[in-house]
Design goal:
single chain; 208 residues
C-alpha cells in the first residue's frame, strides 16, 4: 500500500538507483500486470498517472514512455491470451491460489459474455478485470485477430489517457503538492465501476 500511495517517491528513488533501467522496470510492471493472471495486484492506473506527472516535470521522457508502455500493455495482453488458450483450463482446475480466484474468473467471464470483443477494450479501465480478460478470452477461444484489434485499441487508449492525464495535471501546483491524494483519487475512480457492480448484485441478492 505504501508503494502504491507513494509511487512518486518510490519511482524517483528507483530512478536515482538504476538510471535508465527505470524504463525496463516500468515495462516489466505493465507487462506483468496485464500479462500474468496471478499479478492483478500490481499498480496500473495510478502508476501510469504518476509516470505521466514525472514526464511533465522532465524526470522521464514522454516520447519514450508512451510507445514503450503501449508495447508492454499489448504484449502482456497477448501473452495472457495464449496462456489462457493453451493451458487456461488446466490452471483453473488446479488453481488453489489467493490470486487466481474463481470469483474473479466468473465475473470476468460474465463481463466478456455481455460485451463480446469490446470487453477487451473496456477491461483496460477496470482493475483486476483487465488482468483476467485476456486470459478468459484465450480460454473462450476468441479469434486472435479480433482480440489483437481490441487489445491494440485498448492499450493505446489506456496508456495515452493516464499518461497524458498525469502529464498535464501533474504540472498544476495543487496537484503537484498533493500527488498522493491524486493517486488515491485515481485508484478510487478506477474501482467505481466494480463498486457499482457489487452494489447492484447486492440489491438483486437482497430482493430475491
Amino acid at each position: 500500500m505504501d508503494v502504491v500511495l507513494h509511487l512518486d517517491a518510490h519511482l524517483l528513488a528507483i530512478m536515482q538507483a538504476y538510471g535508465m533501467w527505470i524504463y525496463v522496470i516500468l515495462f516489466l510492471i505493465i507487462f506483468c500486470e496485464t500479462g500474468l493472471v496471478v499479478m492483478p495486484f500490481l499498480p496500473g492506473d495510478s502508476l501510469l498517472f504518476v509516470v505521466g506527472a514525472l514526464c511533465g516535470v522532465g524526470a522521464l521522457q514522454i516520447k519514450l514512455v508512451l510507445p514503450l508502455l503501449m508495447v508492454a500493455s499489448f504484449s502482456g495482453d497477448s501473452t495472457n491470451y495464449w496462456i489462457g488458450r493453451l493451458v487456461g483450463m488446466r490452471l483453473v482446475k488446479r488453481a488453489n491460489s489467493s490470486f487466481l480466484k474463481h470469483e474473479y474468473l466468473e465475473k470476468t467471464h460474465a463481463f466478456y459474455k455481455k460485451h463480446g470483443g469490446k470487453a477487451i477494450l473496456f477491461a483496460r479501465f477496470l482493475p483486476i478485470v483487465r488482468t483476467f480478460a485476456p486470459f478468459v478470452a484465450g480460454i473462450g477461444l476468441m479469434r486472435y485477430r479480433l482480440f489483437m484489434l481490441f487489445s491494440a485499441l485498448g492499450s493505446i487508449a489506456w496508456i495515452s489517457l493516464f499518461i497524458m492525464g498525469g502529464f498535464f495535471l501533474g504540472n498544476i501546483p495543487v496537484v503537484k503538492d498533493n500527488l498522493t491524494l491524486m493517486v488515491i483519487v485515481v485508484i478510487s475512480i478506477s474501482f467505481l465501476p466494480a463498486l457499482r457492480e457489487f452494489i447492484r448484485h447486492r440489491r438483486v441478492y437482497n430482493s430475491a
